[in-house]
Amino acid sequence: MSLGQPNGLRWSLVVALPVAVALLAIPAVVTDVFWLGLGITVLMWAALATAWNISAGLAGGLSLGHAAYFGVGAYTATLLFLRLGVSPWLGLLVGAALAGALGAAIGAITFRLRGPFFVLATLAFGIVVHIAAVNWRELTRGAAGLLLPFGGGAQNMLFAGIAPYWYIGLGLLALTLGVTVAIRRSQLGYYLVALREDEDAARALGVRVVRCKVAASAISAALTACGGAFYATYIQYIDPSSTTQFEISVQIALVAIVGGLGTTLGPALGAVVVVPLGEILRAWLGGGPALMLYALMLIVIVLAAPYGVLGLLQRLVARLRSGRGPRGAAQGSGGRA
Hints:
The protein is an all-alpha fold. The protein has two domains: 1-29; 31-245, no CATH class. 77% of the residues lie in helices and 1% in strands. The chain has helices spanning 4-29, 33-58, 66-84, 88-110, 116-135, 137-140, 163-184, 187-197, 199-204, 209-235, 240-243, 246-259, 266-284, 287-304, 308-321, 325-331, and strands spanning 146-147, 237-238. A two-stranded antiparallel sheet has the order 1-2. Helix 3 packs antiparallel against helix 4 and helix 3 packs parallel to helix 5 (116-135).
């Protein structure tokens, strides 16, 4: 085992370095605003799904309330900038701290529940935050929303072009992936996996269930708030529908599940599949027909890859390496990964 680790690390670097160079070069290669903007959207959803995966994929808490943390990050950064002139860079950190504290508090309550009761509790929490954002007009201006005036400059995270947002989104994704890897390699990561697989057995072995899950919830919420702050400065306009709506929580979960729940790279890969699919269909068909075809294609993807797109790719690669080839892989596709 010890001999295989350096070899695995070397191969990881061989793959990661060219990918990193290619990602850094994309703004110089892709000059079309539509495609570059789509890429920024993919990065944002990949970061959000990866953050959600820390709580749901590693700890097993399938939350449907993460739109609340997204909204906390967006509104905190925006309000601090509009009312106090605080840089959105600092507002991002403040929003992450607030969302992390809120995630810990909500987690301490909801993680004592199990199964559908936990999911319903997180759903109710997200709805309460959305109602508060709509009705607290003195703070959020309700449905009218908040518009960020273009002040320009890197200090305000406001740029004339969209290329800088690519690098910010790439940095946000790198942060969430780095935190995920660090957690998976830590004692907390082993505890979370044990809790996800068998909570009662983990508790019997001395794992502090609520403390570990609360830590995962706080980290996940803080990273999600960072995504909300990034979204606010990128779009330069926020309202409750675009930041705290229930559909945002569903989209975050959908991206992670399609990519591969509980894996490191699966949620990011899910964003690469789900986000362009939805945007291209919407631009091609528009409205209702696009949504119907989008839902149908997602159903096909989930049925074809029940362990996520990443799991499907891993099985295909393993079968090709074993010398079975595409025909053998097709014949043996019924087995579990």
